[in-house]
Each structure stands twice: as structure tokens, then as C-alpha cells.
Amino acid sequence: MAALQEKKTCSQRMEEFRHYCWNPDTGQMLGRTLSKWVWISLYYVAFYVVMTGLFALAIYTLMWTIDPYTPDYQDQLKSPGVTLRPDVYGERGLEIFYNVSDNASWKDLTQTLHKFLTAYSPAAQEENINCSSGQYFNQIEFHAPNHTKFSCKFTAEMLQNCSGLTDPNFGFGEGKPCFIIKMNRVSLLRLDSKYIFPPFRQSPQSHSFLPSSALCSKHQIPPTNQDITPPHYSNPLVAAKFLNIPKNKEVIIVCKIIAENVSFDNPHDPYEGKVEFKLKIQK
Amino acid sequence: MVGGFSSLLWAGAILCFIAYVIEFTKDNSASMDNLFLGIVLVLVVILTGMFAYYQEAKSTNIIGSISKMIPRKALVIRDGEKKEIPAEELVVGDIVEIKGGDQIPADIRILDSQGCKVDNSSLTGESEPQLRSCHFTHENPLETKNIGFYSTTCLEGTATGMVINTGDRTIIGRIASLASSVGQEKTPIAIEIEHFVHIVAGVAVSIGIVFFIIAICMKYRVLDAVIFLIGIILANVPEGLVAAVTVSLSLTAKRMAKKNCLVKNLEAVETLGSTSIICSDKTGTLTQNRMTVAHLWFDNQIYRADTSEDQKAQSFDQSSATWASLLNIVTLCNRAEFGAGQENVSIMKKIVMGDASETALLKFSEVIMGDVIERRKRNKKVAEIPFNSLNKFQLSIHETDDKRFLLVMKGAPEAILEKCSTIMFNGQEQPLDESAREAFQTAYMLLGGLGERVLGFCHLYLPEDEFPDTYSFDTETMNFPTSDLCFVGLISLIDPPRSNVPDAIIKCRSAGIKVIMVTGDHPITAKAIARSVGIISANSETVEDIAKRLKIPVEQVNKREAKAAVVSGMELKEMSPEQLDELLKNHSEIVFARTSPQQKLIIVEGCQRQDAVVAVTGDGVNDSPALKKANIGIAMGFAGSDAAKIAADMVLLDDNFASIVTGIEEGRLIFDNLKKIIAFTLTKNIAELCPFLIFIIAGVPLPIGTIVILFIDLGTDIIPSIALAYEKAESDIMNRKPRHKKKDRLVNHQLALYSYLHIGILQSVGGFFAYFTAYAVQGFRPDLLLYLRPLWVDDTINDLEDSYGQEWTKYQRNHLEWTGYTAYFVAVMVQQIADVIIRKTRINSIFQQGLFRNKYIWVGIASQIIIAVILSSGFGSVPILSFTTLRVQYWFVAVPYAIVIWLYDEFRKLLIRRYPGSWWDKNMYY
Q1: Which Gene Ontology terms cover its molecular function (chain A) (predicted)?
Q2: Per-residue confidence at A139, pLDDT binned at 50, 70, 90?
């Protein structure tokens, strides 16, 4: 095995490598002649074309078999998530800290709200219809334009003085900020009751919900037996206006969905069925 | 082997820690995956290292228990007193006493000896007891009669000697240190593994760099690109392979041990399989190491005796009266006796007191006639002259039934014939005329030419009138006739080949393995044995044979015409290395006779210059340098000395050459099976790597996580890959040439390409299909997933919309990602079942091989399924393991791909079988 233990010099190795790259005796490049390279490449091209075809066929079959309107399973979406606006994330979740006297510290927060509510302007909601039945809005037929279904109107006005229309500062300037709470859209959800309830251990006057009583109308919930979300559908919102938050103190606020089939105690997911945030208003 | 692999894994572990540190400094809450991976890699290295060590230590222990050669106590005369002291306390100048049965405690010069005989076989390979005396007879300490060697055994007699060397300075010690200084070659499997590691590392680094560049072009941050680079390299590390290979080798080692090949070093398992030259001892390895009656000559005819191990089938004609007389002489003129208390031992295994020839004759007559001792009792011995080298015969006189005395004599044939005037033919005494003498001469030459030790037998019934039964015989004055006897016959003895050796040699020959015999015996005996076992085949001739046939001088013979060669030690001494190379190259059948054990080293080196993988057998201490130098040194379990066993890589427990051949078969099988194991393991590497590549390029949520990959590599795939080690050979592996060290690689580019670019890609496609299915049925369609990653991984987005407008929190997305991992994992597992089935064969159809012949494969498949069921049914749903409970239908998503894999491989094998040598064969056969 002496040959295997021979130490080759660098130039020998280079020479061998060059010989491997181009062997003038046999006309081989990288160990194959040109025609061999063509053959092997053709084979691989053909092989991968077939394989891509197989994959495309599989994906096509998949798309063909899945329901176009509702997802087949909702294994991860047993309970809807809840989100908050304005949403500023700190080290550990949502943290909304601002100084009443420092306009710049809450300007961005109100901007976020304004931006968020543009989707709820009358113009944006124009094609939606007025619903007021207080029942789930079941549609079987596709009567809306482009073979879709109708959505109910939900305009910012419904949030009254948290709409940004009457008070463009959403109360941030006076230390009574509005927060908009949104329940994530999940198809096939049927809520048996619908409250967003912050367990706030202050006097009952400490907060108010808008629309009143933190009620979402049932017709605003993406209804059962319905289908892919209508194109202009907007989630119903609840605004919470906090009236007397102690100043210069970090307050933890949890808003939960209280409903029979919504859980809010998943230890891994802090946003499932509830939203928790820290609020600190400095003066 | 473990060295090459573990360097790969160590490098991987270090990369893991680097990647973890980079991620950690960037973000304190970085995932711990890389840290875990690093720790697991280190654990794998350490555990497999410990396992291999344990395996090898276990076989070393067995060797240790076979014999304990180191002398413990020595009887020394100090201060005028005899004392018993531990042998290691001896110093030069001590006077020691030894007696029969002792081991000599140091090198001693004999001062006084009473019939002291020593067994030097462990040192020099001479099996005959050597007489020791105080006479200086030779310059060479190994040859002179007045030196007793450390660790040799004193067989009989007593002696007093002065210690001249102790410990490492003794002859044995020096040889042992020479042996340890002989550089050992890397084993072929170690070279193959190194080559494999180069391939894997090359692939890993080149893919890594390509994607590093792509990542930079895609405007990833450099630090992220570095993490990707490391991730890609790590994904190529086959974590489970080192364990699978080590276990497979030790399984084979275990199987070999059952067939009497005890392998000390796991790598030697495969080395044996790639052996292309075996340099074998003669005595004890090729032969039975006991003298046995081979031929008989009486009634002017040569009869062949059965020389097999039990000698049961004695088929020659036993009706002649001459034979009766001959048998009588053989029985009576024999001093050998069975040891006491062996009534239940079979004849061949009985211990006999007496020298080798007499033992052979005693057993021979016992087998044929039964109860020799009874016959001896009936014919009481009245006088005896034992054999001595002066008169070259042995004589005894016995009483007989008819009152006459019978004189029986045996000895060197020519000496016996001289004392005869008549010869017995068909029971009738006839005058010993010229024609009878000629017949004798022819028979004698013929048997001698076979390398056999020939003995002549004659007898004489003493006339009753001259020698009445009261006659007192005197062996000093020889008051009885010792001439004009009646010649009865010849018996020739040989140390016969073991009966299974000729088959083994034929097997070697068809397996393209050259068998070279190296012996200390006389060239004629060596050649005869070589012929009878087939080392020199029936129709091949040596240069001398050709010269004899053509009646021309040896010098005129064209050496190329002679296939065989018998070379003596003296000739070998004169040869230059080039001449030796020439000899080894030009002759396919070589016998080295009258060689000293030291010359073995020269022969081994010569063979290794031919690029051969050389196996060498040996038993003496002197053999240990050659054993060490050889690619695989094979020591004899019974006859071998400790030094030989220590220097060897393998110990042959039954000292039988045929066991080497079965060992070779196992070694070749494991080489093929290692190919299958590696091909099986490499395949899913691509299926584990592609997700990461697609993740980088197409920005999809990660299809499979590091921990899940570890569960494939070290979980579901381990048992199936080990099960492949039990796969039977596809064709007669002993019908092909030994593999060429530099051409027939363990991992060739066909294997790598086929595993990586064919089956591996197919598996990835299947895996991705499962992944897309898992996402699509929960709401994320494939088109949405592309480039979704920045949003997907954003912790601050808790309302990410899917294709149905549903909104997902971060944790819900994570949970879906894990479902994706689990689906991908199950898909790879399902396709690995197809993979393990296709890897059962490389060329034959699965149906030719038989689906159920290797039951371990099914155990492996069951283990895959069980582990996957456990992980995906809730037990894996610990956040750190990142498995979720999987819906049953995901299990079947990849099944069509598994079937495609199987069909494709059957198609590949079909074309290879149909068109051997074609373009397809060259590119697709690994």
C-alpha cells in the first residue's frame, strides 16, 4: 500500500487535477468525454422533467381535492386569536408606554390606529350591505358581484368616540386612550356569546366598550356554512377606552373572549382567545 | 475507520457550536437546535467510540484467556540457596533451574543439562522438541544448542542455566519490540471511509458555498448567509452512519467468531474480505499437524490410506496375508502407548506417549484392528532395541501363539532392506532378487518424492529349535539374527492436509485470491503438500518440472511457462527485491520452503509492493513482525504464541486454513452490505437538505427542523440500516476477483449520484408533497407559502391571513409548522421503507433476492413505523421535539412516491441485468 502513503507534491496534485479537468489523450473533461457529458445531461434533464411532472401532477391533484371555500381542517385554529391596535411589541409581548405630555411619544400610536381604520371607512365598505338581524348571516347563493358573497358593513363610526373621527387623538392626549381589539377571523366559527371582557379591578367606570357592551353582532362573525371570506369582509372590532388608568404605573390588561367554544388558557399561545398588554401612561 | 468518521462529526459539532454562538449573540432567544445538534454529534462520536472499544476489548480478552504464557515463578539459586521467586525479579547472572513442564523464565545459557528438551515452536516454528545441552554449536543464538529462550517450554529433562537476558532484551522481547516498530498500514476500510468522508465533505461544502452565494445575491444578511452555510454543511453529516457501520462490522465480527475467526480489530473484518494474497503457514494450518499413515507398499503395490481427520474410510485391500504380517509388525514394533484413562475418547483424539511416527502407526493400527494393547499383551515383548540414529532401526522380539519367537523390525527402508534376504509377496516368502529390489526402489522413490517419511518393515520367525521359549535374549550381545530377514512392506507417513483445505483453496482460486505457502519444511515435502491441497494445481509445473519433462537444463526453461514456483529460503536470501517482485508477478502458484520466519516479512513486503492486500498466518513469536506488517495478520489460536496473537489482527481459533476462507466470504459480504448501508443512509440526506435549500431560495416556512432530522438519522433509520448488514449475498461473492484497492471503492460516484440525485431527489419531492398537503388542508395553499417567510416568522404578527382569509397567531403558525415537520418526517420515513427494500440488492430484483429471507429488514421496517407512530401520536408533542399529533391521512401522502422509488430502482436493476457493460450499467451500477 506504499502508493497510498506517498506524499504527493502540490505541483503533482495540481497537474493531476489539470489532467482530470482536461485529458488531451482521451478528450475527457472532468472524467467524461463531451458526448458522454451530453448523454448524461440529457438523461438528468429527462429524469427531472419527469419528476417535475410528477410533482406538478401531485400538486394539481391536491388543489383539485381541497375545498375551495373552507379549509379541510382547522387543527391549529380551534380558538381564534385576538390582536390589539396599536401594537407595539417589547421584550415580552405588547407594551404600550407613552407620555401624555410628550406628543411625539403617542403620535405613532394614533397613526397606527388611523391607518388601521382606513379599511373601515365608508368608502372602503361601500360594497357591503347593512345587516342588523343580530343573527348569523347565512348565505347560500353567490349574489355579490364576481360570484362572491356579501359582507356586512362595519364602519369606523360604529366605534363612536374611538373612531378617530371625533377625536383624532383617540384620547391618548388626555390619558384616556382607545384600544381597538380585533378577533382573528376563523372560518366555521360560531360563538355562543360574544364579550370582550377585560378583568380590570378598578371601578366600573374605569373603562367603556364601544360599540356598547363589547358586543359584536352575530352577523359580523364570518358565518357558518359560509365559505371563503367575502372580498370586502372586515372583522368586527371592539374598542376599549380606558378612562382612569393610574398614571406613571405599569398596568397589565387582559382582554378575553368569553365564549363556550373559545379557550383562552393555552399556555403556549398568549394570543389565543385573549390579548394581554402592558400599559403605562406617564405624566 | 472511526477516526475518519469522527473527524467529520467533530467538525460538524464545532460548526454547530459556532452557529449557535452566532445566533445567540444576535438574538438571546435564538433556537437551541444547533446547540442540541452539536451535543448529539459529540454524544454519537463518544458512544460509538466506546462501543467499538468495548467490542475490540472483548475479543482481546478472549485472546488473553486462551493461554497464559508468561512464566510466573522461577527456581533460582542465590546465596547458595534454592529459592522460588517471581520471574520478573530475575537479573542477569542468576542461576536458574528448570525441569520438564516449566516455562523458561528468561534467556539462559545452559550450564548443565540432563536430557533437556525444549519446545521452541512459539519462537522458531519448529515443532520438533529441541535438545538443549551445554555445547556451543552455532554462532546464531537461535541455532545454537546451549541457549534456552524466554517463554519457551521445557518438555522433559532438567537443566541449569545462567540468565543472560531478561525482559525486553530477551530474544522474544526484541522481536516483540521489532514488531511494534513495524509500521502498520491503514486498513483498506479506513481508506474507503476516508474517501467517503471526502466525498460527503466535498458535496456539503460545495452546496454550502453555492447557496451562500445565492443567499448573498438574494440580499440576506451576511451573518444569516453564514448560518445557512453551516446549516447546509451540517445537513450533510450522516449522524447515524458511524453507529450503523460500527454495529454492522461488529455483527460480522461476531459471525466470524462463530466460524472460528476471532477479529481483534473491527476494521480487519473488511480487510479480510479484500484480501488478494494469503501467505499461509503449512504445518497446522494447511495440514493437521500430526503424522499420519499416507501410503502402504506391500505385494508390490502401493495402497493409499485414508488421511482424513478420522481415518475411518480405510479402503485398501486388507485380505492379503502380507498385510496381516505387516499389521503385526506395525502393532508390535512400536513403543508408543495410549495415555491412561481415555476409554471414551475417540482414537484420533487420544493422547499418546511416543514420537510422531510411532503415534501415527499406533493410531493407524488401532483404527484398523482395534485393541492393539491386547494384541501386544498376547505377544509379550521379550527384548527390544530402541531406535537410534546409528543403526537406524528399531527392533523387538515377541512371543507368539505357536511357541516361536517373532523378531520385528522397522526403520529407514534402505537400512531394513540391507538386512533382508527374502521378501514377502502374497504371504509367501520369496528370495529378494533384482526385480524385487527394483520394485522396492521404485516404490521408495515414489513415496519419498511425495514428501513422505517412509519406513521399512521386516520380520523373522525365529526357529523354535534354536530359540526355545526359555531362551534369554541379550540386546547388548545381540544373541539373535539381525540379517536374512524377510522384508514385508513400506509405510509412508505424512502430516496430511486438513480435509477441508483443498476445497478452501479451490474457493480461494475462484475468488481470485493467490495462496502462497510459506514453510520451514523441505521443498519436496512442501511441494507435495502444496500439490495435494491444490496450492500447486494438478496441471501446472515448476521450472524444474519443465526442465525434467523436456530434459533440458533448468537455465534454458522459459520461466514464463511455469505457473508454479518452489523457492527455498536460500534462494530467497540471494534475491533482490526486484527479482522477488518478478517472481511474485510471474508465478501464480508459489511455495516458499525452508524459510525462516524472518523471511516472511520480506515476502509480505514483496506482495504489498504488488498493491495486494496481504493476509499472513503465523504462530511463532518470530512471525509477529510479518503479522504486524501484513494488511491482516492471522495468528493461530492453539499453536500461536501470545506475541503472535498480540501482533495479529485476527486469531484463528481452530488453526484451520478453511476458516480463513469463510472469514473472507464474510468480509466480502460486509463490504457489499456496507455499500448498501451507506447508499441507504445517504439517500435521505438529500431529503433532509432540500427543505433547507428551498427554505432559503423560495422563502417557505421551514419544512423540517433539526431535531426532527435527528429523529430520522438516529431514530427511524438506525435499525433498518443495521438490518442491511444481514443481507445475503446477491451472487456467489467467492466467484469474483478481490476488489481492486484503488478502483473498486466503497462509495463510488455512481453510488453517490444515484443516492443523492435520483432516489434522494425523489424522496424530497415526496416529502415536499406531504408538506404542501399539510399546509394546504389547514388553509395555506402552496402559492401563498412562497416568500411568506418574513411574515411567517415575525413574532409581532398575530393575525397572518391564509388562503381562506383566516388569521393565524404566531403560535398557531408554529404549531402548523411542526405539523409540517411531522408530515415531512412521516413522508421521509415511508419512503425510507421503500429505500431499505430497494437497497437489499444492487443488481438482482427484489424478488430474486426474496423479500423475507432477511427477517431483520422487517424488524427494521417495524421499528421505523413504531418510532414514527410514537412520535406522531402525541409523545413527540413536547415543544422542544417539535412533533405534533398527525392525522392518519398524512401517512399515505408519500406512499405513491415510495412505490415510484421501488419501481424506478427495479427498472434500473432490470436494465443493468439486461445490458451488462452498457452506458446504463456504467452509470447506474454502484
Answers
A1: ATPase activator activity
A2: low
What is the Cα B373 distance to its own chain's centre?
A: 43
The answer to whether A229 touches A164, Cβ cutoff 8 Å, is no
Question: Is the CB of residue B503 less than 8 Å from the CB of residue B532?
Answer: no
Query: Which DSSP state fits A259?
Result: B
Is B763 in the A-facing interface, judged by CB distances under 8 Å?
A: no
Q: Which of B102, B281, B619, B802 is catalytic?
A: B281
CATH superfamily assigned to domain A82-281:
Na, k-atpase alpha subunit. (2.60.40.1660)
| Chain A residue whose CA is closest to B814 | A76
In the predicted structure, residue A59 carries a pLDDT above the cut 90: yes
Alpha carbon distance A2, B727 (integer Å): 34
Instruction: Find the closest chain A residue to B812 by CA distance.
Output: A76
A63–B781: do the CB atoms touch at under 8 Å?
Answer: yes
Contact in structure between A242 and A279 (CB atoms under 8 Å) = yes
> Rounded to an integer, what distance in angstroms lies between the CA atom of residue B595 and that of residue B271?
26
Domains of chain A by residue range: 14-54, 82-281
Q: Determine whether the interchain pair B809/A271 forms a contact, defined as Cβ–Cβ distance below 8 Å.
A: yes
Inter-chain contact A55–B879, Cβ cutoff 8 Å? no
Instruction: Name the pLDDT band for A17 (thresholds 50, 70, 90).
Output: confident
Distance from CA of A203 to the nearest CA of B (A): 31
Structural contact between residues B150 and B170, judged by C-beta atoms closer than 8 angstroms: yes
Q: Which of A3, A44, A271 sits opposite B611 (nearest CB)?
A: A3
Determine contact, residues A183/A235, Cβ cutoff 8 Å: yes
Question: For residue B768, which residues of chain A lie inside 8 Å, CB to CB?
Answer: 55
Distance CA A236, CA A234 (A): 6
Cβ of residue B195 closer than 8 Å to a chain A Cβ: no
Q: Which three cell numbers stand for residue A46?
A: 429527462
pLDDT value at residue A231: 58
For B835, phi then psi, to 5°, come to -65, -45
pLDDT at residue A193 in the model: 45
Q: What is the pLDDT of residue A158?
A: 76
User: Would you tell me the crossing angle of helices B895-914 and B760-776 to the nearest 10 degrees?
Assistant: 160
Query: Long-range contacts for B911-917 (Cβ within 8 Å, ≥24 apart)?
Result: B912/B843, B913/B843, B913/B844, B913/B845
Mean pLDDT throughout B742-749?
Answer: 88
CB B754 within 8 A of CB B679: yes
Respond yes or no: is residue B306 known to be catalytic. Answer: no
Q: Would you say residue B264 has pLDDT above 50?
A: yes
Taking the Cβ of residue B807 and every Cβ of chain A, the question of whether any pair is shorter than 8 Å is answered with: yes
Q: Are B90 and B105 within 8 A, CB to CB?
A: yes
Convert the pLDDT of each residue in B196-255 to its tens digit: 888 888 888 899 999 999 999 988 888 888 888 888 888 888 888 888 888 888 889 888
Q: How many CB pairs under 8 A join A and B?
A: 133
CB atoms within 10 A of CB B434: 7
Give B471's contacts (C-beta < 8 A, 6+ positions apart). Answer: B405
Contact yes or no for A1 and B819 at CB 8 A: no
Q: Between these two residues, B470 and B98, which has the higher pLDDT value?
A: B98
What is the rounded CA–CA span in Å between residue B309 and residue B307? Answer: 6
> Cβ contact (<8 Å) for A62 and B773?
yes
Q: pLDDT tens across A170-209, in order?
A: 888 888 888 888 888 877 555 544 444 444 433 344 556 6
Q: Which pLDDT score is estimated for B905? A: 95
Average pLDDT estimate for A101-118: 89
The set of cell numbers assigned to B722 is 443495521
